Amino acid sequence: xxxxxxxxxxxxxxxxxxxxxxxxxxxxxxxxxxxxxxxxxxxxxxxxxxxxxxxxxxxxxxxxxxxxxxxxxxxxxxxxxxxxxxxxxxxxxxxxxxxxxxxxxxxxxxxxxxxxxxxxxxxxxxxxxxxxxxxxxxxxxxxxxxxxxxxxxxxxxxxxxxxxxxxxxxxxxxxxxxxxxxxxxxxxxxxxxxxxxxxxxxxxxxxxxxxxxxxxxxxxxxxxxxxxxxxxxxxxxxxxxxxxxxxxxxxxxxxxxxxxxxxxxxxxxxxxxxxxxxxxxxxxxxxxxxxxxxxxxxxxxxxxxxxxxxxxxxxxxxxxxxxxxxxxxxxxxxxxxxxxxxxxxxxxxxxxxxxxxxxxxxxxxxxxxxxxxxxxxxxxxxxxxxxxxxxxxxxxxxxxxxxxxxxxxxxxxxxxxxxxxxxxxxxxxxxxxxxxxxxxxxxxxxxxxxxxxxxxxxxxxxxxxxxxxxxxxxxxxxxxxxxxxxxxxxxxxxxxxxxxxxxxxxxxxxxxxxxxxxxxxxxx
Length: 524
Description:
Blueprint: H1 2-12, E1 15-16, E2 28-30, H2 32-35, H3 44-55, E3 60-63, H4 65-71, E4 80-83, H5 87-91, E5 97-100, E6 106-111, E7 118-124, E8 132-134, H6 143-146, E9 151-153, E10 159-162, H7 168-173, E11 182-185, E12 190-193, H8 197-203, E13 205-206, H9 212-218, H10 222-233, E14 236-237, H11 239-242, H12 245-248, H13 257-268, H14 273-282, H15 294-299, H16 309-327, H17 334-355, H18 360-375, H19 382-399, H20 406-411, H21 416-428, H22 434-445, H23 448-464, H24 500-504
Parallel strand pairs: 4-7, 8-9, 13-14
Antiparallel strand pairs: 1-8, 2-12, 3-4, 3-11, 5-6, 6-7, 9-10, 11-12
Helix pairs in contact: 10-13, 10-14, 16-17, 17-18, 17-19, 18-19, 19-21, 21-22
Keywords: ATP-binding, mRNA processing, Nucleotide-binding, Nucleotidyltransferase, RNA-binding, Transcription, Transferase
Active site: 78, 80, 176
Enzyme class: transferase
């Protein structure tokens, strides 16, 4: 009783009670003939970073998930390096190196420029803290209290600062899973293992280092990381590692939304997105009122399942395409994937606003804004994502008009291919007439003569049925379409009065090169 009272007293005075001590483990050096890592899978720039640090007299190793993937015979997507050099010492050894982060101070060593650039992330060995400063708030509300602190936690035990340097043996102990706590020396071709990670990798087992409940409280996002590894690698969570997950899920409410959003994007771009959704449901992170990922809540049913019918087919095909591109080593665009995930909520809102009397294009813009506010909110990078997603969605209305000079300007848009791939997905899922996607594909690939013939066919079809193929919407009561005149002409006496303003409104034309080419298109 007295000890508990003292612990509470110190906690209130600004020092958190010490968590359960994490075991240090025992250093084991594994030779090349045992671990079998193929040197051809290494990144030469990561090896160069290691050599630069060791030549300067520091310890340096490739670390974490890269070592795990190498042991499994996979080429890692990213290479991280760990060293006993401080961030300032690392920065001083490289021409283009930048210290980033507050929660964890690390160094980004940059090679190349533009789209071809590569970042090697270098972290300093971290120590197991003897004690932590307790902060009454989070990253935003407790900024003043966090200033000058090297290690601090919030009321739930979540780590807000972790910049205490130490030896490699302690750095290994503070990592999450055993398979992520191995170090590889590319010069001596040695794997350094402290916690049996090599054996767990071979057994395809995810095992937390230390007390799982404490480690999840330090960083609840470790639950999402467990989902990602289980889906990507086909690993199973060890029973003790799985046991406290359900009780720790509510702690994710304290995680900054931008970090959760980034973790969701990583999760769905592993090349195993559908398997990731299965794992999320299995651990209770979607459905059943989980409310961890607002975007996924918009896409899935209340029980966390894929919707049936056209909607489910559309999303499933989008994820299958994304997985295929990742597994082929091709780039994927987060904006395209998110546009697919939120499309049907946009569509529902769009239809409702149009039924209220708003014109189609302004109605779509209003629907998009409402969905962004409800599902994405104010997160880092929203502006870039919003611009790309908005362009893909707004392009769907332009695809419906197959006349005039607009068809030529549309296929010259930087994001045309992404917009067309979105249109093709809608057609393949049965949401729209496949003939519309076929027409645009033929037009984009055709010769000048082919294009003129396609335009003539479109005009003839419009004269027979003047209303173009539109996004699904409720039929207007009392509407009768005109059977006379070219659809490109101004509204005449025979056309419905309600449609006259929309047909007279001129399209706003984008300036050439107005799009952002940084995001990769959805298909080659």
